[in-house]
Amino acid sequence: MENPAVDLAVDPAAEAASINKTDQSKTSTTSQPSPASSPLAVTVGPTSTLERLPSELRRQILFSIADLEDLRALVLASPVYYQQHLLDRRALLEGALSRTLGSVLADSLAVQESRERFESSARLPESETISVKGYDWPPQWATSSEILEGCSEKDLVAMARFYLTIAQPLVLNCAALFLWNLDESLEDCALSDTERTRFLRALYRF
């Protein structure tokens, strides 16, 4: 099974199964008191209350998550939500990317397209150059669905992974370095939405 779009570490379902298997092997080799003989014995359910919700509610929870990093955290933390998100993977990625990147979504798509073009050939012909055509398209009024129209699920996966592993960490590092160059005594502070967008757009275009 392919890893989820925001799963950059391990498959949560496989990891959980491995942990359960290890726990069962330990239990079989170690003598344990029976529940009846232990007045403090507590029965623990196999899943949390959040995971026992009906699938319709779990789906609404996934779609209500606005930030891509928060979506990644939930999917990695729960095998149940990992399986649930696979049913609406593309729609979830489109929504999370749109809300997280905002007006930088077109720049993110341009980076993905240029990466695909570069990786398709070890060396481009001398007469062929990569350009973004001055960002003439999409126009400012274009919706996120229009920008992402024609993107494959693989493209969305790559865009999400690039943001989480490269763009977001570099934005924070660049902001801290910029502040330090202004005044070494200044402490790091949270970026406003406008500052974050400007840093992010500059990074993607670079």
Write up what this structure looks like.
With 206 residues, the chain is mainly alpha-helical. The protein has one domain (12-27, 47-121, 145-205). The chain is built from nine helices and no strands. The longest helix has 30 residues, at 153-182. Mean pLDDT is 74; it is low at 1-6, 8-45 and 126-135.
List its traits:
59% helix, 0% strand, disordered N terminus, mainly alpha
Short description:
By secondary structure, the protein is mainly α. It has helices at residues 12-29, 55-64, 68-77, 79-87, 89-101, 105-119, 144-147, 153-182, 193-205.
Task: Name the poorly predicted regions.
Answer: 1-6, 8-45, 126-135
- Discrete helix count: 9
Instruction: Please give the domain count.
Output: 1
Major sheet description:
none
Give the total of beta strands.
0
- Cα separation of the termini: 34 Å
- State which percent range the strand residues make up: under 5%
Helix content: 55-70%
Cα radius of gyration in angstroms: 23 Å
- Global geometry: globular
Mean model confidence by pLDDT: 74
